[in-house]
């Protein structure tokens, strides 16, 4: 079963000029822009992420036909970050592997880990967003992930350039921007009202994930117990 999942995911990454680093159980670590320079590395990574989600949807249909209607769908989380890394043969004198290490690599792993907390299957960093501006993506939060002092601005990757030009995306981006403004100002009651508008815009755009449910629960907690000091940054408690 794992081979049947990992093979098409691998094919998509390689076709988008990515390099497979390693398989970790049911996960794939990959990077772009090495060993050969790839000017469009951020866009290629985003494109690969979207294609893997599309392929997984088709695989879930196939698996349900093979295993029965009660077979639960497979879900994946993807984290993308862009930054400097050390790339080369790492290991020992007896055994080594071609890999990438560094703070930027660690952040991509942390973003993947936050997909469950935010109810969004693909999270990208601010740097990746700035290098792939044509894709449909909205800012979700400022989060201080485990092991990092500086907060990271995270975005949900929702679609390609055609999706970004959809009028529904503009409506969603506008509502999301107003929600974040109220939220970061500490106006949690106002943020809760705007959140409902943003959730409706997301549904109209076809982004059916669980981010707004997660934020609704967070706002309920903040309203019930207002923080003494609020800077608009969420402290992630898990990797």
Write up this protein.
It is a single chain. Helices cover 49% and strands 21% of the residues. The longest helix is centred in the N-terminal third of the chain and has 27 residues, at 41-67. It has helices spanning 2-15, 41-67, 103-118, 126-131, 161-164, 167-184, 188-205, 211-224; strands at 19-24, 27-31, 78-80, 86-91, 96-101, 122-125, 136-144, 152-159, 234-235. With 239 residues, it is of the alpha/beta class. The chain starts with a helix and ends with a strand. It contains eight helices and nine strands. The model has no long low-confidence stretch (mean pLDDT 96). Strand 7 (136-144) and strand 8 form a beta hairpin.
> Structural class of the helix and strand makeup?
alpha/beta
Gap between N and C termini:
27 Å
Helix content: 40-55%
> What's the main sheet like?
5 strands, mixed
Side-by-side strand order of the widest sheet:
3-6-8-7-9
Write down the Rg: 19 Å
| SS summary, helix count | 8
Q: What is the mean predicted local confidence, pLDDT?
A: 96
Approximately what portion of the residues adopt beta-strand conformation?
15-25%
Q: What is the string of SSEs from the N terminus onward? A: HEEHEEEHEHEEHHHHE
Shape: globular
Q: List the uncertain runs.
A: none
User: What is the β-strand count?
Assistant: 9
